[in-house]
């Protein structure tokens, strides 16, 4: 639902609960199906039960066992029907079968909407979900299961993905200290820098724990290692800066992308109209806790290897990153892309992406069907911040064309020739040093909040899968 209402769906919801058009919706180019998963995330559920959420920050659901909802929660509007908090699935791998079964069920129940060819788009924790789920689907296809529908994957697109924790936890240092971000914003003093470095590389600290997790596969060690890294490496940013992990340009609370859609989805008329069984929540504390028991967030477990396997099977893979995102930042993503076994990718260079508006919104490095894209002036949810280029690179990827122009065939030894590094720097003109008003709207042209109108209201803006992560740190979508 995050993807549907904040990013690439046909509609957005404004501050007044009105439905407004998104002219850059991806359904301009393809039929779309949005899936909240694993079960208990978003509108998905296992067993519906009456309950309430006493603390919005934790999102933990308290089940009502023949008791009344506390009056304060009735006032806060958190009393309702939710999924019974259960502890499975507890890993990316264990979530894959249900995802495949969901597609099977959809294709069987709605043959009029079913298509033989599929393109799989995901984001953030999708750096785990995308490669693992897609390879699972390919494995199921190969079994020729009687009665099962063949899901012919052609494209996998992953925005600001979290693939390899050993690489990407270190990238928090790269993004904030050296070589730093491209917004000329150096956030830490020498004391904080030394603390962060020691928490990463000191004996027995983050890197050592992640290596031990990879070597042993122990749930206990992987969970402990990921928790340590989250609290002592990633969260240094939050404690010191109070900036949005998903957009380094904004202080907390950040109004972008707006969450007005959550209240809209929890209105009686909408829930009745769509046949919802449970109240909508942006994230599931139960799912986060379950995944934390296996340390799934701190495991690589074949995510990068599976990207290579998908490419070997003729599937197009595009990794794209908004470069203002700290949480799953582009420097870490770029390092991961170099670990993918795509022939000649190490020889490819960065070139500008050409779009219909004549503005350079980013660069791409591509070899054959594999591309790594950096998008300028964009936070974590790229289709919100840069909707036009997002739609156009989506169209190019699913059509099997080059990402830079959309004109070249990528299956005949195509490779981008340019500098080995993407060096463009935005500077800090769009970095905000005061909290932006909660009713502000985002200007996709300037990359900044729109100015207030004369009446003191903000000018109306022109125009994932739910939050997933442990409570111990900001959730990757």
UniProtKB/TrEMBL annotation:
Q: Which UniProt keywords apply?
A: Carboxypeptidase, Glycoprotein, Hydrolase, Protease
Pfam families named among the record's database cross-references: Peptidase_S10 (PF00450)
Gene3D superfamilies xrefs: 1.10.287.410, alpha/beta hydrolase
The record's similarity note reads: Belongs to the peptidase S10 family.
What is this protein called in UniProt?
Answer: Carboxypeptidase
Q: Which organism is it from?
A: Stereocaulon virgatum
